[in-house]
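Researcher: We're teaching a course module on how sequence relates to structure. For the next exercise, students receive a sequence and then see the predicted structure as tokens, so they can try to spot secondary structure elements on their own. Here is the exercise chain.
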Amino acid sequence: VCRVVRENLIQFEALASSKNLYLKAELEDDEIISYLDEKILHQILNNLINNAIKYTQKGGVTVEVHKGVIDNSKNVFIKIKDTGIGIPTDSISKIFEEFRQVSEGLDRKFDGTGLGLTLTKKFVEVLGGKIQVESEVDKGSIFTISFPITDTEKLKSYSAIQSDPEISSEDTIMFKVKPNILLVENDDASIEVTKLFLKDLCELDLASNGEQALQSIQAKKYDIILMDINLGRGLSGLDITRKIRSYTGYENTPIVAVTAFAMIGDKEEFIKAGCTHYLSKPFKKNELLEIIDEIISAK
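Model: And here is the predicted structure for the students to work with:
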């Protein structure tokens, strides 16, 4: 964890220096290990440190890493502390909402935080972590992210298992063919998460609504469709699925229902509408890859 923090800080040294801000790390222990997707952790830290520097005009940014306990389990805590403009108390609950500007009701200095923080929160949740914010206007903000610590003894035994060539980990799943996948999704943060998880593993196209999805399947034959169920206005994911099933060549194409609002009985409804698989949000990288691998292997 500390290595990844250091690597991120190096990226921002020039930016902090150009604004005459300090940028420093306070690391309790170099040997804190948490089994996380490194690319996603980099993106989380990148977003939070970038925001901290962006909204700080004097003073600087400190990144602290220390161990702690949540519900009797060891966690690593990463705090990004700045001496910036801060966030009004009534805006703290809104800052993770998509496209919300924290400047609503204050001033325009906050422009652009909306999607970055929405995406950051989703990334943290995907890694099984938590994110919290403390802030005071004109004094600064503290963003704290926490993740479970991996026991070093368990890690050794896990490493031994990983060395067995018969056993593959989530990071080594390689599909036997590179599938053509259509992602039907209108949530920018979910799109970015999915693109990151599937990078270099497939040919991924995007449709943000029903009309685009139907145009896409007429123009190209897809091996798999990832279908968000709640697409906001217009056709729902289930409506689109029913329509897709009426197109020649798509009668049996695997369609994965993806939703954050699963209730008892929903899975059955999704299958009845024509979906073949189900994935609940927020999903982890290995959950997505395993479903795709299962589909490809069954062909």
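Model: If you want an answer key for the exercise: The longest strand covers residues 60-70. The two ends are 39 Å apart (CA to CA).
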